[in-house]
Amino acid sequence: MINIITFYRLQSTLVYFELLCLQINDNTNMGFLLSKSMDANFKKQQEFMLHNARLQMERQILMQNQMRERQMAMQIAWSREFLKYFGTFFTVATVGLTAGAIKRKKPALLAPIIPLGFVFAYQMDSAYGNLIYRMRGEAESIMTSEHNRLDLPHGTPTFDSIEKARRARSSLAAFLEK
Fold first, then answer.
1. CA–CA separation, 165 and 158 (whole Å)
2. Do residues 110 and 98 make contact, with C-beta atoms less than 8 angstroms apart?
3. Are 169 and 177 spatial neighbours (Cβ–Cβ below 8 Å)?
4. Rounded to whole angstroms, how far apart are CA atoms 106 and 138?
5. What end-to-end distance do the CA atoms of the chain give, in Å?
6. DSSP symbol at 147
7. Would you give the distance in Å from CA 107 to the centre of its chain?
8. What is the DSSP letter of 55?
9. In 10 A of CB 51, how many CB atoms?
10. Torsion angle of alpha carbons 113, 117, 120, 121, nearest 10°?
């Protein structure tokens, strides 16, 4: 986004430079008055472009946040739905294993209840507990104290790297079509 703004500023600066050169070549009062008018229009255009860029960025941030909220809501809903099925399975398995252990007098049949209980507790915490808040706290801690773990391979993509990849792909596609 910044590179696009920089491009438009550069383009506007070039137009302004060309107009300034015209004004220097024309030493009459008419050129001076025209230059003042052009300068005012140029400043208004810059302010308008900056305002539009800010609006676009605000909208983009809001859209990304709404998408993140929707994804998190879907994840929580999935956890709650999974908990219904797993809770039913856990209850049936616990009752069946307990009845079998009592009937056959083998307490070893109760062993699967322990790991299933941990999975059930995790799903319960994920669906209705405060797991999401603990995860958020841990994520914030990682972002502040272990930021180097978050670095992307080859660094953050730049406009130049993306453009280079696009050009390579488009020239490759043109080569493959021949």
1. 11
2. yes
3. no
4. 43
5. 35
6. G
7. 51
8. H
9. 10
10. 170
d(CA 5, CA 53): 7
Q: Which helix (H) or strand (E) holds 27?
A: none
* Neighbouring residues of 32: CB distance < 8 A, sequence distance ≥ 6: 23
| Rounded CA separation 7/60 (Å) | 19
CB 20 within 8 A of CB 31: no
Instruction: Give the burial string for 75-95 (b: 16+ CB within 10 Å, else e).
Output: eeeebeeebeebeeebeeebe
C-alpha of 168 from chain center: 26
75-131 residue pLDDT tens: 999 999 999 999 999 999 999 999 999 999 999 999 999 999 999 999 999 999 999
Q: Is the pTM of this model over 0.85?
A: no
- The Cβ of residue 67 has, within 10 Å, a number of other Cβ atoms equal to 10
| 84's tokens | 């219904």
- Token digits of residue 19: 């107009």
CA distances from 81 to 63, 86, 94, 113 (A): 27, 9, 20, 21
